[in-house]
Amino acid sequence: MPAVVALSVMLATFMEVLDTTVVNVSLPHIAGNLSAGLDESTWVVTSYLVSNAIVLPATGWLSRVFGRKRFYMTCVAAFSIASLICGFAPSLMWLVFFRIVQGLAGGALQPISQAILWETFPVRKRGMGMAIFGIGVIFAPIVGPTLGGWLTDSYSWRWIFFINVPVGLLSLTLTSMNVVDPPYLPRGVGKVDYFGLGLLAVGIGSLQIVLDKGERNDWFSTAWIVQLALVAAVCLVLLVIWELRNKQPILDLSIFRARNYAPGVTLIFCLGTALYSSLVLLPLFLQNLLGYSALQSGLAMSPGGLGTLICMPLVGYMVGRRDARYMVIFGLSMLAISMFMMSHYNLNISMWEAIYPRIVMGIGLAFLFVPLATVTFSFIPREQTGNATGTFNLMRNLGGSFGIAMVTTLLARRAQFHQARLVEHVSPYDPQYVEMARAGIGKLVAAGQPHLAAQREVLGLAYGQVIRQATAMAFIDCFWILGVAMIVVIPLVFIMRRQTNSHLR
Q1: Which of 42, 148, 364, 454 is 20 to 30 Å from the Cα of 137, by its Cα?
Q2: 149: burial class by Cβ within 10 Å (0-12, 13-18, 19+)?
Q3: Neighbouring C-beta atoms of residue 148, cutoff 10 Å
Q4: Cα–Cα dist 399/335, whole Å
């Protein structure tokens, strides 16, 4: 039964996607417990993302070499074992090492599960299969920070890894009983493309490190960031040239000739940018400027995930009966609207005012992810499904990395810009500042403070307000730019051809 197969593969996929965000809120606890600096502890996240990104595009090739079901079950088992060892890690070095193993094992779970669901569901119900997959890859990163914060506060950071073990065991059991390899899936490989594999690993790995560490290390002002960026650029260009000429490539780029695939992966890249950028921006805004706790910010974001969860089955039902391209346009429009709503945030908003744009965004994600996946894969030959889903998921993850790097850099730059403009008004020549300072100094002096100390305190309070307001304006700029970006990519949808049942077979 398709529903049982869906449950079998989505358990492990949900667990793997969850691990991309669940660790973030626990980094201070990990650093303190393992006697490491907070900056060092970020390698727990970076190592996972790098190894995960390396495996994603090679999933189709690896499935052919080892057999898809065998490879999938091996990855689930390795992911579960690595999670268990991460939970018992005695030092940061060992934790980072097994996070690399965890990322290598988990990288293949998303594309393989998507390929299995695409093939398992009947043609007219494939939209429902993509909806089930979408629930995992969209809902998991949204609930990750909330779950991670709760486990860390209630038990220990080690439990964010321990919870993967029973889920992995259940997924292994169900997969062994219900999943089979289709007879048309090619098996075996005549010659291993070692050079292509090396270029892929070094290029994608270097790119991911640059994106993850660039802002923290002042981008191209740091020598090793420049060197890694050059390595990534050279390796990826050589990879494309090599794979186009190789008769048995590890990354089959011929799928980009298929109708809808190139604009589809471009749009999923933009979806990843919007989703992961907002998952970074909103908690920072709520916690740093409004004083929310990690749990409160998680609760403010969770309704967006519920909007996605509720709408996904409806969208899955509609995809096989309506032109999915119009759903993609609707989804992009809803994302843009939600970003413009967030661009109206201020320092006095209520929790509800923070929540409802997230609900709008959650609905947009539901109407975007499922139809986009369906239209993108409509013209892909079924023997190429594994290869296509690997690159598709890689582009979503890279979009997230690019988005996070972009908004963190933009946030810092725009905050500096706004601070420079606002501080001009903290001057004895500005009537409003003079009036505010006179009133504040008068109250402090009346309370018993010396006049000079009162002057200094009022100036400090004014500067603190300048920083808060400048930072808030920088967040508004980021949300507004993301909203414009969602509108700009809508014309790409019109390049795509409508899916039909004959193409879906």
Answers
A1: 42
A2: buried
A3: 25
A4: 15
The distance in angstroms from the start CA to the end CA of the chain is: 19
Dihedral angle of Cα 145, 131, 181, 192, to the nearest 10 degrees: -60
Burial class (CB in 10 A: 0-12, 13-18, 19+), 240: middle
Would you list the DSSP string of 411-447? HHHHHHHHHHHHGGGSSTT-HHHHHHHHHHHHHHHHT
Tokens of 53: 């990104």
Residue 363 exposed, middle or buried by CB count within 10 Å (0-12, 13-18, 19+): buried
Whose tokens are 């070094």? That residue is 202
Higher pLDDT, 180 or 356: 356
* pTM passes above 0.85: no
CB-based contacts of 70, cutoff 8 Å, min separation 6: none
SS (H, E, C) 166-216: HHHHHHHHHHHHHCCCCCCCCCCCCCCCHHHHHHHHHHHHHHHHHHHHCCC
- In the DSSP assignment, the letter for residue 158 is T
The mean pLDDT value for 27-41 works out to 71
CA 205 from centre of chain: 16
The token pair that represents 412 in the structure block: 């810092």
